[in-house]
Amino acid sequence: MRSAQTVEGGLSAQSTSGYANAKDAEAASGRLAWPVKLFLAGLVIPWIMPLGSLSLSVYRIVLLTAVLPCIFLLLRGKAGPVRVPDIGLFIYSLWAAVSFLLAHGVEGAIQPGGILFVETMGAYLLGRCYIRDAKDFRALAIALTKLVLLIAPFAVVEWATGKKPILLAFGTVFPTVEATLMAPRMGFYRVQGPFDHSILFGLLCGSVLSLTHLIAGKGRSFFARLPFSLGVAFTAILSMSSAPIAGLLLQTGLMSWNAALRKFKARWQLLFGIIFACYLVVEFGSNQTPIQFYISHFTFDKQTGWYRIWIWNYGSASVLAHPLFGIGFGQWARPAWMSDSIDNFWLVVAVRHGIPAVAFLLISILSIMVSVGFKKLDEALEDYRIAYLICIFTYLFVGTTVHFWTAAYAWFLFLLGSGVWLLDAKSDRGTVEAPQKALNSPGSNRGSERSAAVPVFTRFQPRQVAGRREGGAADGSPPMRRPLAPRR
């Protein structure tokens, strides 16, 4: 059986979307590198492993071992050229370490500064270095979908009974993350799963939706991919948290908008225009700021929404009082009746590390999103671009009402790095992998394969043959690209 052949453009409809079944579709995708597999497994293994004075989770151990090799790969050009976000995230990590140093001294800064660097640069570079083409990205989407659906049965048990089967099972071997005890909502328990909090469970599971529907289900009909998408969405809803559910609704809305107006090239400009118009309506037609309006109207509990507004008011005042390096893990000024929790990721970064830190982080993220958004890609890669941007934008949006920490933060940075390969794809003909294994699987219709074949062009330079370039004239004039005859 032939291995998959790399081709540029001109893929037939059969080779891009005609998968007969799930086995053929998976055969056409790539295989994930072992560091990525270990990282994904580590995210859902709740063990806290004692290592000297440190207590490390499994995914942190993976990142600790991978961060230096990934840095060397990047510097040697094995993951494409060094880009603005690579430098921006490094400066962000360095700035955060300095803020810890100023707030807590050398001893108090080493551990949190080192962990933040590993979770930021380690996770980002792991995705940056090991997810390098469409096959890798699709293999990632398939693995994530399987992971969420694997957790789903245990999540249903926790949702209905309040018992935590994942933590109980893993806790028989090593210590795990602490179990959270929260009041039920609508008669059901909020699922924590293998993570630190139910919000993180909903966020991680829900962030996979666009990847599941557009990438893992690529080549299948809408109704064939629908059960997997619904399974991922249902699992995330079991967190009973408003922020992840808002993220699911956002992804569903953006995917529906893209599908409905796919032939309209200015569809995203139109959407941004509508969003800006809504912003103006809230800004000038309401006694609340747009942030206050969103926080107070899109939460399960109105009291929780108003509490988050108080967090924003006092948290932003702390940022203005300590604008450069923040206060580290120090106490921010607030009334005695408020807890020290800040339900806003971007505000947490600014409070702890100062305005420059959150600026470096946002510039790095937005530079990738804008570059990927305006990159000229082959039509075969359009779904990859859309799924990636929707996923990252959802994280940006949800981060205004929740904080990302531990596995959720590392997962976000890994996702961010996993889409940078799109910037290295060919601008005129996106490089994709033809699923030859699916085409040549037992029982496939070889006669229809030959009749449906289209010209395929190699992406390698013609060989020199006896003083002449293959396909070119002896005087050195450029060779004409000619179609390769279909293999039989």
How would you characterize the overall build of this protein?
The chain is globular, with a radius of gyration of 25 Å. It is mainly alpha-helical and 488 residues long. The strands form three sheets. Strands 1-4 form a two-stranded antiparallel sheet. A two-stranded antiparallel sheet has the order 2-3. 59% of the residues lie in helices and 4% in strands. Helix 8 runs parallel beside helix 11, helix 13 runs antiparallel to helix 14 and helix 14 (302-321) runs parallel beside helix 15 (345-353). The protein has one domain.
State the gist of this model.
It contains 20 helices and six strands. The longest helix is centred in the first third of the chain and has 47 residues, at 84-130. It has one domain.
- Class from helix and strand fractions: mainly alpha
Order of helices and strands: EHHHEEHHHHHHHHHHHHHHHEHHEE
What radius of gyration results from the CA coordinates? 25 Å
**What amount of the residues lies in strands?**
under 5%
| Main sheet attributes: strand count, strand direction, barrel closure | 2 strands, antiparallel
Low-pLDDT parts are 1-28, 428-488
- Helix content range: 55-70%
> How many DSSP helices?
20
The N- to C-terminal Cα distance equals 12 Å
* Domain unit count: 1
User: What shape does the CA trace take?
Assistant: globular
